[in-house]
Amino acid sequence: MKNPVGLVVVDYINDIVSEGGKLSGKGYYKYIDENGTHKKLQSLLEFARAQQWSIFHVRIGFSPDYIEHPEQSLLFGSAKKFGALELGKWGTEFADFAKPGAGEHIFTKNRVSAFFGTNLELVLRSAEVQTLHLAGCATDLAVQSAARDAHDRDFSVVVVEDA
């Protein structure tokens, strides 16, 4: 049997968490910098890798024509206008402190939850993951949405509060 524990890391991309990111003004960069979150996430990733957990990285992003972009969204409605969250650009690359390692899975979402419109659940089930540890920026949005969706899919969920 495979290791039943997995780590899902959500939205640690440059546009959101790096200085100069198009959405960094929302406060995530400042919070991460002031609270040492980048070091805590690095420690968590090192621990998960040492424990041989399955690790899954999730980012939000839209294709260059923004076809899947929800213009009416209060959260993402202005992304197209400002050229934010465009796949293939620096903004949707994972921040240096959150880079995926070899063999770790990467998912791209177009909405708040890591499960909506992605094959995350399929891959988690294929990897025989039963318990998910969740870490990410926007705990009140993306992490909470993923936690609720994971719960409703019968995974045990642990939110890593300081990462």
Describe the model.
It is a single chain. The chain has six helices and five strands, in the order E-H-H-H-E-H-E-H-E-H-E. The chain has a five-stranded parallel beta sheet with strand order 3-2-1-4-5, with helices on both faces. 39% of the residues are buried. By secondary structure, it is α/β, with parallel strands linked by helices. The mean pLDDT is 94. The protein is globular. The longest helix has 14 residues.
C-alpha geometry? globular
- Number of DSSP E strands: 5
SS summary, helix count: 6
Quote the distance from N terminus to C terminus.
28 Å
Largest sheet: 5 strands, parallel
Average pLDDT taken over every residue: 94
Strand content: 15-25%
Strand line-up across the major sheet: 3-2-1-4-5
Structural class: alpha/beta
- The portion of residues assigned to helices is 25-40%
Element order: H for helix, E for strand: EHHHEHEHEHE
Radius of gyration: 15 Å
The low-confidence parts are none
List keywords for this structure.
163 residues; five-stranded parallel sheet; 6 helices; 17% strand; globular
How do you describe this structure in short?
The protein is of the alpha/beta class and 163 residues long. It is 31% helix and 17% strand.
Q: What are the SSEs and their pairings?
A:
Blueprint: E1 5-10, H1 14-17, H2 28-35, H3 37-50, E2 54-60, H4 79-82, E3 105-109, H5 120-126, E4 131-136, H6 139-152, E5 156-159
